[in-house]
Amino acid sequence: MFWDRFPLIKEEIIEFEDYLQSSLVSRQPLIQEAICDLAKSGGKRVRPALLMITAKFGEYKKKEVWSLAAALEVLHMATLIHDDIIDDANLRRGSQTVQAKYGKDVAVFAGDYLFTLTFDILAGEATQQQLKQVSKVIRQICEGEIQQHQDRYNLDVTYKGYFKRIKSKTALLFEGSCALGAGSAGLSKAQIRDLAHYGRYIGMAFQLVDDLFDFSKSSSSIGKPEGNDFTQGVYTLPILYTLYESSSGKKLAELLDDPVDNSQEIKEIITNNSALDYTMKIAKDYINKAKDRIKGLEGNPYHQILTDLADIVVNRDY
Amino acid sequence: MFWDRFPLIKEEIIEFEDYLQSSLVSRQPLIQEAICDLAKSGGKRVRPALLMITAKFGEYKKKEVWSLAAALEVLHMATLIHDDIIDDANLRRGSQTVQAKYGKDVAVFAGDYLFTLTFDILAGEATQQQLKQVSKVIRQICEGEIQQHQDRYNLDVTYKGYFKRIKSKTALLFEGSCALGAGSAGLSKAQIRDLAHYGRYIGMAFQLVDDLFDFSKSSSSIGKPEGNDFTQGVYTLPILYTLYESSSGKKLAELLDDPVDNSQEIKEIITNNSALDYTMKIAKDYINKAKDRIKGLEGNPYHQILTDLADIVVNRDY
Asked: Using beta carbons and an 8 Å cutoff, which residues of B are at the interface with A?
């Protein structure tokens, strides 16, 4: 498994998996089936892991940490289900999505169920402040999703708009995981801020690399259809960079008029330009910022894990 | 307005409306627009009113009560938005639905946003127990919605299945409003239970009357398309009663094979049988049970409001 390389936390993440599965219950058989499918299709549990690791820098309150970690992972699952409705996606992590298997109607309410479960888990352990933190993150995710939807097929999306969008879509939940973990451990305000920024920056890099994979990877290796984003009018950094900085920008704009038919040609333009290198460079800049931000924690064994995780974000090929 | 007839609480409900509107904020312009549309299209704010009225039977903690009332109304709005996605509905309270105006994608995340806002409002004032109460209600609503979806076009739906479904769909939120109001006022366990049952029973009656209107009312008077339910395979009590108790049951089953084309004939069968009378009788039985349940509170001026409200549920023509 992914966490084999981190013996210091591997066991706890394996134990946590059982706890997470046991939180995912419903008396309605179809909901139970849908959320079990999703839970079992895996995922690396990066958000819970970040929460646990950042909580290890101070007084480790296992019960509180696990409850927060489960809540955030369940929330992440809820957003995946609703995301797949928007994207009309059939595959997620190589498995059929809830909406493909059970229909959009079930997907809407299965997602709602998980959203509610998030708060149900939190209601048991979280403080008022932690609840507010989580609900703020979710509201921003929703706002980001709708912004992304509104920006579709808009060739005038700015870099700023793109970075704001991936912040909402991905980075804020990474940031929230770290902030909640560090907060639970009773760290100083400055340390919490540093770890929260670490989370945000690796989240930005994570999404940049994902957006890059949309062009460089075959669909089978990432378990979802290739070129999904631009064929649906969602323009990521490789597209924006080529549009604005390359001599092929005008040609690309024309091809994007009919993205499905021109999909192969669009990909060739993007890969033949320096757009993917540029995107990777920006991702690596974020990783460097992330590592810089937690320099003050050097010496602690969990600092090494965070540094290694940051490197993996940009060196992964999955 | 609806509350003109109840001077004892009318002013507070008017004041509360501003508070509710001010809770409905988003920095994302499209979400803001969508939720404003919905909020302004009105509704009688029955759930907040029930919460306030039941809270008047003891020590009235206005700040807590308003926060709970706003949370439940926002939750109700969230379920309406997601409901309309499932039902493919174009009209709600005579106005275009969020999904009809902005598309399903926006509707999914605007609903999620409101779900989250519910918990955000609660995080400020509610106790852990109140949070758990609300999240339990939402989970049951989600389970009920999925059950309803699964039962579509199933001619073997039982009465029991139907009553369970309308309990989840409508009655539990009425029950929750009353339970939270009574709980906040520090009433005895028995009183809280009585008021909660009052809420559940009028909620059951409310949904029964709604289901009856599906056959007896023109679409313009209830602000939504007529005969919506059975054309989508959702069989309510008038249908079930005719199927199981009437000599036209077999004929009806055949007609339901093609409910859209046979819509007029189906309605005639239902209205020419005693199905609507039967449905109204069951609704009135619930209203009597509701009033019985709160007999112990007689003498209190708010008891009169609850009794009058119960009567209105079955005597309304909107």
From this structure: 26-28, 30-31, 78, 82, 85-86, 103-106, 108-113, 115-117, 119-120, 122-124, 128, 131-132, 135-136, 138-139, 142-143, 145-147, 149-150
- Looking at residue B123, its pLDDT comes to 87
State both tokens at B167: 């309990």
Confidence at B160, pLDDT banded by 50, 70, 90: very high
What are the residues facing A283 on neighbouring strands?
none
Residues near B185 by beta carbon (within 8 Å), at least 6 away in sequence: B54, B55, B56, B57, B58, B59, B60, B61
pLDDT at B193: 97
Which runs of consecutive H residues, i.e. helices, occur in chain B?
A: 7-23, 29-40, 46-55, 62-87, 98-102, 104-125, 128-150, 159-166, 172-184, 189-216, 219-222, 228-231, 237-245, 249-255, 263-272, 275-293, 301-315
Neighbours of A227 (CB within 10 A): 17
For the cut 90, the answer to whether the pLDDT of residue A183 exceeds it is yes
Give B29's contacts (C-beta < 8 A, 6+ positions apart).
none
Residue B54 C-alpha from the chain's centroid: 17
DSSP string, B8-39: HHHHHHHHHHHHHHHH---SSHHHHHHHHHHH
H/E segment holding residue A92: strand A91-92
Question: Quick check: A109 and B28 CB within 8 A?
Answer: no
Percent pLDDT > 90 in chain B is 62
- Local structure of residue A167 (DSSP, 8 states): I
Give the N- to C-terminal CA distance of chain A in Å, as an integer: 13
Q: Which residue among B105, B128, B139 places its CB closest to the CB of A86? A: B105
Mean predicted lDDT score pLDDT of chain A: 90
CB burial class (10 A; 0-12, 13-18, 19+) of residue B109?
Answer: buried
Residue B72 clears pLDDT 90, i.e. is over it: yes
CB B70, CB B145: distance < 8 Å: no
Nearest CA in chain B to A30: B146
Chain B partners within 8 Å of A139 (Cβ)? 26, 113, 116-117, 120
Angle between helices A104-125 and B104-125 (to 10 degrees): 20
Domains of chain B: 11-311 (1.10.600.10)
Q: What is the ipTM of this complex?
A: 0.85
Q: How many CB atoms are closer than 10 A to CB B277?
A: 12
What residues of A are in the B interface, CB distance below 8 Å? 26-28, 30-31, 78, 82, 85-86, 103-106, 108-113, 115-117, 119-120, 122-124, 128, 131-132, 135-136, 138-139, 142-143, 145-147, 149-150
Six token digits for residue B91: 């009209």
